[in-house]
Specification:
The chain is an alpha/beta fold. 41% of the residues lie in helices and 16% in strands. It folds into 2 domains: 197 residues, Glycogen Phosphorylase B (Rossmann fold); 169 residues, Glycogen Phosphorylase B (Rossmann fold, 3-Layer(aba) Sandwich). β13, α11 and β14 form a beta-alpha-beta unit. The two termini are 26 Å apart. The mean pLDDT is 93.
């Protein structure tokens, strides 16, 4: 596994890679990781080879590899069979270089809508439309090279194809959810007491606090609902570069007393958070999958999600959650709250269709397909 982002930074790509790694190990495979070197290298359960890297100043917590160092020697020593990249930047280029040098199959999971992220984090001040087109040129060039591109959802595969990305093969393989870890049995009323939210109707937001998560949409809805739903609260779990921005924005909407920023939760507490809140709300138009949606559903918690990209793939209106347009979030929150209890069982059953075991089996098939494609191209 090649990772553009890695611990101590935690984002969707890191969680997806970790989930896939555990699923593969449970099926008898061995996983090693190559990642940019951080200042404070964390303890990690599997072998990691760090490459020299520098901080990406536009997005704190992310690093860009500046040298391949002894990458190829390490991969040869480990007798690697397959390379799977979880990034689009420096590690995508290096992983392709390594795969070609070692003549082994290469897969790349498209985790990030880089064409949109560039407007928030580009170090260059250029027009958004120009920067986005430059990113699409890069993506068309990059994604034609792996044997298999993995799309976490069908809408993302369709979007890539609509933008003229010609891939050798694109397979839809969602990141699986651990239905034993995320379950309604994790409900604990004491969890909300810690945040002074006992007796309140609590919406949950989980994710890295970055501009593209569009929390402003939820804040606007919370302000709109305040007179009608005086006991409604929002619990925001996560940290990130836009934390200060969002705290100031909550104040500007006059809802600081209705929004609690919990910061980063330990692994043991996150399943409890999902199971103990009334609904999850997600307003990001940026998601290629949105694993938090499946984690909430597996916990028996219906999801209020924006009707954009991957999110409608996993939410069935009125059955396991409610969908909204950017200007109708408040209405969806009210619809979901009125039916939250009746949607619990449907939420759990819908998540089971995306269990880690089922999704890992699909990933294995993608690995075999990549090997077949490579073999046919080099008979």
């Amino acid at each position: 596994m090649f990772a553009d982002s890695f611990f101590p930074t935690v984002d969707g790509a890191v969680v997806a890679m970790e989930t896939a790694s555990k699923g593969l190990e449970n099926r008898g495979h061995e996983v090693i990781v190559l990642a940019p070197r951080a200042q404070n290298v964390p303890d990690y359960r599997r072998k990691v080879h760090y490459l020299p890297a520098m901080e990406f100043r536009s997005y704190p917590g992310y690093r860009i590899v500046v040298s391949p160092s002894d990458m190829l020697d390490f991969l040869r020593t480990e007798k690697v069979d397959t390379i799977h990249c979880h990034g689009l930047a420096s590690m995508a280029i290096l992983s392709l270089t390594a795969a070609r040098a070692l003549k082994i199959p290469h897969l790349l999971t498209f985790h990030t809508m880089a064409n949109e992220a560039i407007r928030y984090y580009s170090p260059l001040r250029l027009r958004d439309d120009f920067m986005e087109e430059m990113v699409w040129i890069y993506l068309r060039n990059m994604l034609k090279r792996p044997e298999v591109v993995v799309a976490p959802s069908a809408p993302i595969k369709a979007e890539l194809e609509e933008h003229g990305v010609a891939m050798k093969s694109c397979q839809v393989v969602p990141t699986g959810v651990d239905c034993k870890r995320f379950t309604p049995e994790n409900y604990d009323k004491k969890f909300l007491e810690k945040y002074g939210l006992s007796g309140k109707r609590v919406l949950l937001h989980v994710g890295r606090l970055s501009m593209e998560k569009r929390l402003d949409i939820v804040f606007k809805a919370m302000a709109e609902l305040a007179p009608k739903e005086p006991d409604l609260r929002l619990l925001v779990v996560g940290k990130g570069p836009a934390e200060g921005h969002y705290k100031a924005q909550a104040a500007s909407f006059g809802i600081s007393d209705k929004v609690t920023f919990a910061g980063f939760l330990p692994d043991a507490d996150l399943p409890v958070a999902y199971a103990s809140c009334e609904s999850l709300v997600i307003s990001s138009t940026f998601e290629t999958q949105g694993l938090v949606v499946l984690e909430a559903l597996a916990s028996g918690t219906p999801v209020i999600g924006i009707r954009c990209r991957a999110i409608p793939e996993f939410i069935q209106e009125g059955k396991n959650g409610c969908l909204f347009e950017p200007d109708s979030c408040a209405d969806a929150i009210q619809r979901c709250l009125s039916r939250a209890d009746s949607m619990m069982m449907s939420a759990v059953s819908s998540a089971r269709e995306y269990s880690v075991d089922l999704c890992t089996a699909k990933l294995e098939k993608a690995y075999h397909l990549a090997a077949d494609i490579l073999a046919k191209s080099h008979p």
